[in-house]
Amino acid sequence: MKRIWCLTLVAMIGGSAAHARVKLVALPERARVVVSLTHPDQTLVEEERLITLQKGVNKVDFSWRGVSIDSSSIQVRLLTHPNDVKVLNTSYPPNENALVWEIASPAAQEERVRISYLLSGITREVTYRAVAEPNEQSMTLRNYLRLHNNSGEDLTEAEVALGYGSNFKKTIAHEEVLEMLSERVEALPVKKVLTWDSATLPWDPEYQKSTVGIPLNYVLTNDKPHKLGTHTLLPGKVRIFIKTKEQPAKDGDQPGEGVAFTGEDWAQLTPVDREMKLFIGQSRDVKVTQRRTKDERTNIRRNTSNQDVLWDKDEVYKIEIENFKKEQVNLTLVEHVPGYWKMVENSHAPQFKKKDAFTFEYNLTLPAESTGEKKTTVTFELNRVNVQGNEPASY
Amino acid sequence: MNFLFRLVSEKVGESVSGTRRSSLTHRLTHSLTYLAAALALLVTATAHARINVVTLPDRDSVQLTIYNSADLTLVKETRNLTLRKGMNRLEFSWANTLIDPTSVEFRALTHADEVEVADVSFPPRVTNTLEWRINSEFAGDVVVEIRYFTSGLSWSADYVAEAVKDEKLIDFSGAVRANNNSGEDYENAQVRLVVGVIRLVEDIANLARAGKPGTPTTVAAMSAAAPAAAPRRQLNEAFVAMDAAEKSMAARPKEIIREGVSEYFMYTVEGRDTILNGWSKRMPSFRAEKVPITSYYKFEKERFGDQVIRYYQFTNSVANKLGNEPLPDGAMKAFRFVSDDLLYAFVGSTSVKYIPVNEFVELDLGNDQEVSVKPTMMDWQKTDISFDTKGNVIGWTEKQTWQFEVQNSKDIPVVLDIRRNFSGDWSLTTAAKYDKVDATKVKFVVPLKPREKQTLGYEVMMKHGTNKTK
Q1: pLDDT value for B49
Q2: Residue A319: which residues within 8 A CB-CB, separation 6 or more?
């Protein structure tokens, strides 16, 4: 189905035998098309056309077929003589995708008009592709905009406005999907972090049949020092590759450069100065064993039926971490404690960070090959206060 | 008498239709409906009736008063009739239009003292027809007014707000759109639009479908009375008529005269308009430039979830370049100028509530991801435990510490309004400025500069059980 947008200047109307409004029309050329994608859900199209007006009242017919235009959104603005040329009214014929403007002009003259409307069928996706350096400390990030045009309309030489960066001109045919590079950042600093969450991962790997994988994240920061920070990063799929050395074609040749895919995630909307955390896979070269070494009730208060109604708890935890990798590794331990608690003793206070009332983290850097005797051990002691067994664990 | 009545009716009907065919061909070509009036002189005493049929008079003028709160339009039309002295019979019938038969009224505008409606008859086995028996002491031309309710006409208001780049001013324009699905073409009509809520105890459309007073609505009657879309050829010709009629018009948009009537507000569109069946017509009603606004953002978890909702706020007052009239409810679309040549960015659309003069207005433009609020409960404590005589817990105090990271990622300043709801015996401690909205709600209003981030926090103490003191 081919689109029609039709802007016609109705010069004569008549024909007694016709079954439709009969128009002898001039089809004005489209002088400019701007597609605005700044609103997350709506596509605004603005097109400019040159029309020739007669002195007096002119009827300008705007009709469309095969495209989905929100008719209540259609506006016309007069650009050449905004003070002298007036839109008198708009009429909407029945059962037609059309409207008729009555435009009064003080003289026979040419007028550039800008018609704005919301158009359905143009969807956009943001996708990211990143290639990490072998040391995983930086990467090249490419941000692509993928436009799907199912509007029914061929957009020729359309200026596309994203709300950031400069507008660019593209031609996108109906039913075409056009992907374009919208941003490229070289040597973008990235932090690789493993996250071990006590609520989701087994505490004692010895009791597991297979090796426990620890979720691996790349963390980008949307700010100037990290070569970003000009605009909010939109949600979209991120695919991450890593540079590899290829086997030389024959002995003595330099090894070629290639890439391997390391994983993908959905990026969340990331405002400026915020972090984008991408979960792309698992690491099995780091082993975390957590044990509760003390779990005692104290200060127990009982009712007259000798039931425990209130108590405190003394809990001690020990976490042993081994890094089998030849490089140092960033590891975040996530711990969850319900209710009212106080930290009594903490082996890693500088690395400790309270995230919210019921969650805290240790942000550790594990030395390379820190296994056996050289393993990292974290201990902490909690005093849980006024426990009744109905403590909130989230909010 | 009954027989005589029918005999006359039939003759009237024949005569009228004959006349109609000859004299009203032009009219039928562009109107599916017909409004028939026939005048008959009735000689009552004898069996041979003398029937006098006059030419069907054209509508001289028509006025539409369209309500927006109910499917109701008051139609007032004037026609010239030639009356005989004595009893005159006037038949008024309609088809394919949704006229409420109980609403049709007749009165003479000239010679009013001499012309009197004796009674109105809704003849049996005929729908959409009534007959007035009119006693006239005057012979000659009389101007009469026929007034009735119809359904199928409606109107709505809509607005466009165009904000400048920094969203401190808007150009605000309103339009009214009249829609005609009544089945009847209204040509050269005076159009009045009423803003206000009126009470109707029965639907006009239902009364219209009944065809005559007190008749239950049947499917057959409904289908007979339902308006059909007019064939396009008719519209075409009518379009020419409209074209010709309006060629002579002044080259400016029609003025819309506004006046308050009781609890209602009425717009009268200058001059005459033609609104054909099936068509709508939208006319500009006002435009106010450089209306000062506040770009205001609200966050209230219980109301909007995690989203921040954007509002344009202003007052419908003269000081704000508005305030000349209440603004009827309607749809609004907001745009922001993003370039020197006034290209638009679409901001959002919303429905506007009825806005009295001097009322403060908030236009809800939906979620804006460029302003964010992240609330975190940083600490939770349970203290001051009370026990009853049996040693069970009957009272305790909960203390929550909250932290709000707020961020404006936009390049223009905004105002953010964060609302928090508390229940029971609560007390709040904070360094941040806040206002108590009511017994259970507080608000923090935070102005944010372009690209500014802030963290604000508070502690709330909530007493439970026997610890409660209020």
Answers
A1: 33
A2: A288, A289, A290, A291, A333, A377, A378, A379
**Dist CA B304 CA B368 (whole Å):** 12
Longest dimension (CA), chain A: 100
Across the range B138-144, mean pLDDT stands at 93
- From chain A, the residues in CB contact with B277 under 8 A are 94
CA distance A381 to chain B (A): 18
CB A46 within 8 A of CB B343: yes
pLDDT for residue A89 is more than 50: yes
Distance CA(B272)–CA(B267), nearest Å, equals 13
Residue B232 to residue A39, Cβ atoms within 8 A:
no
Q: Which helix (H) or strand (E) holds B366?
A: strand B360-367
Which of A363, A374, A375 has the alpha carbon at shortest distance from A333?
A363
Q: How far apart are CA A365 and CA A380, in angstroms?
A: 18
Residues of chain A with C-beta less than 8 angstroms from the C-beta of B233: 16-19
**B103 φ/ψ angles, rounded to the nearest 5 degrees:** -105, -5
CB contact under 8 A, A271 and B252: no
Rounded to a whole number of angstroms, the distance from the CA of A139 to the nearest CA of chain B is 25
- pTM passes above 0.95: no
* Contact check, Cβ <8 Å, A44/B281: no
* pLDDT score at B216: 60
Phi, psi values for residue B205, rounded to 5° = -60, -40
Residue spans of beta strands (DSSP E) within B212-255? none
Using left for φ > 0, alpha for ψ between -120 and 50, and beta otherwise, residue B18 falls in: alpha
- Please list, in sequence order, all residues whose beta carbon lies within 8 angstroms of the beta carbon of residue A391, skipping any fewer than 6 positions away: A338, A339, A340, A384, B382
- Give counts: helices (H), strands (E), chain B: 6, 27
Q: Scanning the structure block, which residue is given the tokens 């935890």?
A: A317
Place of tokens 């010679």: B111
CB contact under 8 A, A356 and B383: no
Section B117-127 average pLDDT = 86
Count of C-beta atoms within a 10 Å radius of residue A239: 16
The two tokens of residue A197 are: 């969450």
- Looking at the DSSP bridge assignments, the partners of residue A376 are A321
Contacts of B348 in chain A (CB under 8 A): 39
- CA-based nearest residue to B427, from B454, B451, B402, B463: B463
The C-alpha of A3 sits at a distance from chain B's nearest C-alpha, in angstroms, of 23
Q: pLDDT by residue (tens digit) across B21-62?
A: 323 222 322 232 333 334 443 333 333 333 333 344 677 889
Q: Measure the CA–CA gap between A240 and A277, rounded to whole angstroms.
A: 13
Whole-angstrom distance, CA of residue B316 vs CA of residue B314: 7
**A315, A393 contact by CB (below 8 A):** no
Q: How far is CA A51 from the centre of its chain?
A: 41
Cβ contact B144:B112 at 8 Å: no
- Per-residue tokens: B330: 């309607």
What ipTM does this complex have?
Answer: 0.84
